[in-house]
Amino acid sequence: MSTENETAENATHAQGPGQPVTEAERVFLRRCVELAREALTAGDEPFGSLLVDEHGAIRFEDRNRVKDGDATRHPEFEIARWAADNLSPQERRASVVYTSGEHCPMCSAAHAWVGLGRIVYASSSGQLVAWRQSWGFGAGPVAALPVHVVAPGVPVSGPDPELAGEVRSLHARMLGVA
Hints:
5-stranded mixed β-sheet, alpha/beta, 5 strands
């Protein structure tokens, strides 16, 4: 019988890296890292995300807001809620979600149920688990399954080697290992 960590690690390795991130996409990812930095400065976990429409316009952005006790206040989940209320199914499918960290299972499911398009992330869930473990911390309360395991129809790109180090630094700072 495998442990939760082994299952998450095997699932991460099964996918391998997503499609490479382009320079144009990196501009949006940089904004996500800025939002993650804002979240950390506000006492939250460092995650930030954007919803970009098919024309390249940012339609919605948010950062983590879990510090007050509602662990579902992830920016990717907020994007799904906003998109369900404000975009047509066609607009949702044509959109791209950019995020500092690969979606957790809850956010991957919300993304798929709402019918959003591609996800581009700066750092993967596998990277986050490895960083936390290397610093002596557990992986977290939920298995760190990659998007393709939870939502197999959602295309992904990432991680981005140029920005993953910045995301790693934010998490290290949050955990006091910077």
